[in-house]
Batch of 3 targets.
Target 1
Amino acid sequence: MTRHSLAIFAVLLGAHAASGQQPRPVQVRTPNGILEGQVAAGTGVRSFKGIPFAAPPVGALRWKAPQPALPWTGVRQAVEFGARCRQDRIWDDMIFRDPGPSEDCLTLNVWAPEEAFAAKTPEAAKLPVMFWIFGGGFMAGGTSEARQDGGNLAPKGVVVVSCNYRLGVFGFFTHPEAAKESEHGSSGNYGLLDQVAALQWVHDNIARFGGDPANVTVFGESAGSFSVSGLVMSPLAKGLFGRAIGESGAMLSSRQPLPRAQAEADNLGFAQEAFGTTSLDKLRSLPADQVQQAAREKPGRFEPVVDGWYLPEPVRAIYAGGKQNQVALLAGWNTDEALASQFFGPMRPTRENFATIASRRFGARATEFLRLYPGTTDAEVQRSAADAAGDDFIALGTWKWIELHTKTPGVPVYRYHFEQRLPSTPPAANHSGEIEYVFRALASKNLPFTDEDRQVSEWMATYWTNFARTGDPNGAGLPKWPVYREADGFPVMHLNASPTAAPDERRGRYLFLDSVDPAAR
């Protein structure tokens, strides 16, 4: 069957599915073989899940850059999520719908709206593409969570893609022997290289699903947002996307990627203690369960590094040299990214202890901190401690990224502050609380959402997809979201039940924290 006849077959199947009650099959031919996905009854969204974008990173390919996926014969079923990558830990809010963790995990998913297959051929549709990167501290996560199901966002007229990437010890173990093997002299960052490989797959294949490879937006949350900032700074991703959305996180935080040599020394120490050897061949021959268990019992630091390839130099140096990718940016963070208890630690949340911690941390500049984060009443102490903890954790690094990116010529920058809260009891930190709203996936949580929540979700999904479509979140019926720039007082879009843009009233806090941040020097 020719590609043209397959496209017609897909349209006919889609039309049939839209009128039925059960998902119906739909096929797309890729260079590696034919995929058979499903058309969702009612919405008409086509989904193709568990698509391999790279070879399984097992055996001799453990701790190597992703290699090309192998072709298959016949029709490959693409109706179930692929296995999530092995996890160093699990976060309580992660509920997966995949077969479980595996080292063989490099798959992605595509959701395409009905209109992607309504044209004469899918290639003619040229819909904007949104490439999602999940969070989880580079230790956990996967694409199968219902709260980030692209089938809810695709009806807004976008093709949504999400990819798995290696995590923890399997994604970021850094070893000098691996650097010697690499033609680029690099080691580590395998999880980030997986994301680049998935983006390359999108560039090469997404037109067959109705997407426009020339109009790709990368977006992610937490570690996913750190990853988005890395892609913005990596020369390997140049030309693979034109817009970026960062939700709570950036590599410009105080915990920036380590120099490769430092990471190698740390990871060699982990290997020697855990396995009694630092031989890369021997480490690759170990059962995955043994490696994973050791990573949990004898934790090392398995995170992004300045490897000389994905990141050719430290992240602030990339921006200082104007070497970042010239892409439009929309980024921000949430109210209550952390709790006041995280500021106080084991100390009681009193005014006296608040001042004591400020003095210990900032010395002669404690008075300046207390002016910006007032603590004269118990209520102020609780609010300021939560703000300070959230700023340390997420806001400062995200703010720094936004600030530096405004110097990128010819591209707009938009900043937001998400202020709606998941209706949880008791109240928890709101880190990651925007995901369900962005994806129109409130129904994925058994929580008492209101019409107000549903309206906020619709606004956010529309802002996000508008930005993916044109590089501007604004559109008919939406409150105006101005560009982030000094001339207008660095306006922030406050995303809540009454979205409103206003000049940044907390700028002094971030300028202060940046001035005392060792990573800034």
Target 2
Amino acid sequence: MMSENDPAQAFLEEARELLAKLEEALLELESDPGHTPSVARVFRNLHTIKGSGAMFGFTEIARFTHDLETAFDKARSGELPLSPELLGLGLVAKDHIQALLETHPDGGGLIPASDAILARLAGVPGMPGAPSPAPGAVSAPDGGPAGGPASGPSGGQEAGQAPAGQTATYWVRYRPAADSFATGCNPLALVEELTALGQHAVVYHPGPDEPLESYDPEKPHGFWDVILVTDAGEEDIRGVFLFVDDGEAVRLEKIGEGRPRGGDLELLAAMTRDPAHDVGALPGLLRGFLLDKLAMRASGKPREAVSHTPGTSSIRVDSGRLDRLVNMVGEMVIIQSRLSQAVNQALDRSCLAQIAEDLERLTDEMRDNALGLRMLPIGTMYGNLRRLVRDVSATLGKDVEFVAEGGDTELDKTVIDRLKDPLVHILRNSLDHGVEPPADREGAGKSRRGLVRLWAGHVGGEVVLRVSDDGRGLDAEKIKRKAQAKGLLAPDADPDRREIFNLIFEPGFSTAEAVSDLSGRGVGMDVVKRALEALRGSVDIDSEPGRGTTLTIRLPLTLAIIDGFCVVIGQGSYIVPLTALRGFQERIPGENRKTVDIIERMGKMVPCVSLRALFGIREDRPDFERVVVAEVDGMEVGLAVDRVVGRQQAVIKSLDEMYKNVNFITGTTINGDGSISLILDVPRLVDFAASHAATAQ
């Protein structure tokens, strides 16, 4: 199992980012094959994945990526046409590399799939030859075949190499000199040149942890162990390090004759990872291991598998944010010292008040900065969504353009991760139900090519996303009839257009005439609504027949902390989120106040919800009620409470079981005195009050 600081885990994280960029560049080339910078991006991403994979022992990724890199290198230089077939294979290969990242570094059972894709690549017009054998796919000891095709310097036997009987296995340890960078040496390039000599497995040792203040970024701090299977002699191997070996930098040992079987290289490399093995004894241990492998082959005993499990996800953080956080920690240490001194010397109230004010300011800044560390541009998921639209529209036989805007809008990483599935459902529905087939669009006087647009931005302290299409739109009458047939709507009901459209979020509701692979079973939009509500978000829908449909999603910036005002009703304490707040005023409480009535605000009549009446609180009334004025869907609404305590930062905690079915309570927070406040979801609270008032009439 990999630890958080394992360099291989860093490779996995980087490789996933590179694959996302690779997919984005390939999709750009599908729409604009002549865009030269995108071809260069594809090549660079493949080259980096191959090189890093080889360096960290992911031999199958390096082998598989080699021919693909070669193809796009030829496309970059104009030697190979950038055909739809090549771009399609590029996307297939991207998915396959993603799968390889989740399995054993030697490819596990995915090598046949690798070879099938490489064979297809070899058949692309303009590609010379066919793929070469996979690592370890050489003659078995009995002389029979032991593997299939592969390619490139990252594995297999190179053209012109000597027969397998002249091949040997070497252990190379390369420890760069302390002044390597200063003399212009590139250790990574040397390791890559070494691995080009034959089949290999690479282990990087990062070296001991060092305090940040003593760490010198201008000096190398780690070293490499390379297990190399090659017919090149020791002289050729040492020739790689001709200008950097001072007698200490490189250690070379021949540890076996011939070629180990596929997968054995990684087991050899795994032994070099074990710090319990003495460096001086390591060559002997490796030789013994090779002898043991020959014995196991003779006896037929299976070899033990090497575990490989993915690590936890990580996040890239802007160094400026980290610098600010470190500075604020320093300020907090100073304030803590001032506070201790004030307690010891019994300083006066004004001094303590100043310390409390400074601490509050610093806490606000640290909170904002810490939350900022988790913020990511929402555009990080646009590549996957663009690929989804491409694949689904092709499956449906539709031509659809996907336009994504506002990718630099930042959102909490947790929210982004949990937002992906709802967006996938929404886009699939837009493509399946919304955008018409090309012939139908042409008959309706539209362009044969449909449009799906995703927009994101910050609006009033929230993140708003809009997914719109220019398709057929929703048929309100059809939805109404279907809802009445399912018993979701009374036969004599006369709902407005918004209420009708919101019926598509009811469980089991679907207007599809037939079940398809994508939709029609009534599963999807209700799941979308529940998923967004779990994120303390909301979704609204609007549509115009013949012109399209728009879904609007509203989400909080973070799931951890919110700003709000603490209010009290009877003995209960509640938090009204600051994003919904628009002002305050007072009114005299009446004996028989309705749940919903009217107040005057700045010359306008505004509906007002008595939370005392809504919650059925019977305790003594205050002399004056405070009205918290909030904004809901562009309309001001008053919330009458007993008193307003003041502004408060709420650290959100999950709901107790007793509140699970109260949809206008989004969470709880612990107050400074240890009591608990419930956090109100104002839009749902207003909806609940409206339905309660309608039922009471």
Target 3
Amino acid sequence: MKELLSTIVFVSFSIVGTAQLKNIRPSVTGNIETTFQYLTTDSTISAVAPEQIGVLNSYSNINYALGGFKAGMRFESYLPAINGYPAFYSGTGIGYKYVEYSNDVLSVTGGNFYEQFGSGMIFRSYEARGIGLDNAMEGARLLFTPRKGVHLKGIFGRQRYNFIDGKVNLSEGIVRGLDGDVNLNEVFDSLSNSKLKIKIGGSFVSKYQASNNDSLVIPNNVGSYGGRIDVRYDRFYINAEYVHKDNDPSQMNNYVYNSGHSALVNLGYSQKGFAVLLSGKSIDNFDFRSDRTVEGNQLFIGYTPALTKNHTYNLTTLYPYASVPLGEIAYQLDVLYKIPKKTVLGGKYGTSVNLNVATSFKPIQHSTTNFSKDRVSYEGRPFDKSDSLYHFDFNIEIKRKINKKLKLSLSYFHFKFNNKLNNVTKSADAQYYIKSDIFVLEGLYKINRKHSVRAELQGLFTKVDKQNWGTLLIEYNISPKWFFAVMDQYNFGNSVESQRIHYLLGSFGYTAGASRFMFSYGKQREGILCIGGVCRPVPASNGLTFTFTSSF
């Protein structure tokens, strides 16, 4: 760390001296985010206060730029981490640091970086702070644009594993990768004005980890490679990507020698007032990590996208969908249509309708007779699905502006959730499928130019688990500085009368320029928090939460 900081300071002063001769001004930017919780024990919702009572997550990014030179770092603090955060976050220290130089042709980064190849299935280094996921690379990255329309990437390094006692620990394995994109319309002058737009790309990623298993012959190097294409013509578009992974025996796949694949296809059409998107995904034995012994949400090299709508209403996240890297075939249909204004159904301002259907299945695993010889346990084929349903999601949303002051939306959701696959409840009557129906009515009323009121009324109905829920939210906004909100989530249908609990939560916030303060106090139910198909459990809590964010 000292050597890196010394290098940053030395290079900074060298460039500052040169830049002053050219009238180039340096800039410093960054942001701060702090979340503090003061929690209490509440036996009615099984909430247990931490020993320290007060817990804190804090981050601060500082970035320095001068011409083509950039350098920065992120300061992190978990004293200890907030409620439900992974246990491998603790202490205070520098969790991210980098030095970068860029011009029109070349960009070189040393230290930490985030990067993605294609859709991210073969390689995606990213941070999802809400669920405590961070697999930042530490090493070197090279971006090269030899000519217009051609983009090349190279990465080499190790992934961030955890942050314990203020120190970043890295994965045991080393990740190496190459990626290329070619925009044919930019490369060939004859296609520059064509309505047909074509991009092609390809990637290769491998990991190295020395074998640590005395009973099996495990490959030290595991490679994956794939290609992609994006074609657009007028209002139509199609993009597809396919990735193959060599045999990768690991803790997650029970050390079998099957190869794996990941495929994603999107077909769409859009015009003014109408758009449709049909997507398909096929995953088999694609749990690709830089350490074969790690489980959970750590050290993923690639990213398995979730083919489902990103739901934001409180009750729609009660039984969440998570991607299944070991095997899943999924489809999604998304249709948006705006009924024209000044019609019977459209009204004065028009009416928006969004229909979404998503479903996922277990793939068929064709039998093989050579397991004792080559430890290949089955044969997997792309988009070869079984009748075993993992998840089904049907939802429709209708939005309409009634007049200049009032906007309303009505939504309906139907879920069929496989609790055996992704266990979120231990209820005896919910050992397999959980079916639920959710209705949401939302309204926004503008009192005047600065004052407005927003309200949500939600109802979830199911015959299993804790049965029926209701949520009422009322939010008052004084633009651009203040907001006040009260939410009550009530388990009114619980068959155990003593468990018909109100989860009452009040909050208010204040915005001053680029800074925002928010306080909330009340109860939070136990559940699962998901971002992009990656989930983590969140325990019940009762207490005060303070959040501060600011950028400069």
